[in-house]
Amino acid sequence: MIQEACKYCGQINMIDLDEEASEQERMEAAIMKCDCEDAKRYKNMKIRRKKAAGFFKAIEEDEQISSLLLKAIDIVALVEKAAAVDVKLSTGERYHIGLNSKGNLITGYKLTTEKKEES
Question: Using CA atoms, how far apart are residues 12 and 10, in angstroms rounded to an integer?
Answer without folding.
Answer: 6
